[in-house]
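Entry 14: structure prediction run for Response regulator. Input pasted below.
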Amino acid sequence: MFVSMEVITILGSTVTIIVAMASGFGWLVTRMDSRFAASDARMAERFAMVEGRFSGMEERMDARFAASDARMDARFAMVEGRFSGMEERMDARFAASDARFAMVEERFSGMDARFGALEERLTGIEHEVTEVRIAVARLEGPPRRLISVR
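Run finished. Output tokens:
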């Protein structure tokens, strides 16, 4: 079997082109992989930097919140101390007011009883005066008329 030089050249060229394309693709993959690795390293570095900033901010915010909580707790304790004494004083004042109202109510009920007795006495006097008027009218007789009846 005879193979011509052109066929051998074409086969050699084809193999060379295929090998060149495979090596070019390998070079491209290697280069892209190194670029991706560098990009990943830069992003990891930036993420670490941002994470450091956020952790610092978080620590500062935690410290601020803790200080604010301490101030608010102290303030609430002070207000609660004021109100606890005030509550006891208000309870004492209300108890004194209740006692005074009970005393006034007792006096009013006494006055009410006295007014009831007075009303009964006045009603009795009114009945007696009415009876006296009737008795006087009977004693005097019928009223005299200006014109005499014939």
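Notes: The chain has a mean pLDDT of 89. Will compare against the previous run tomorrow.
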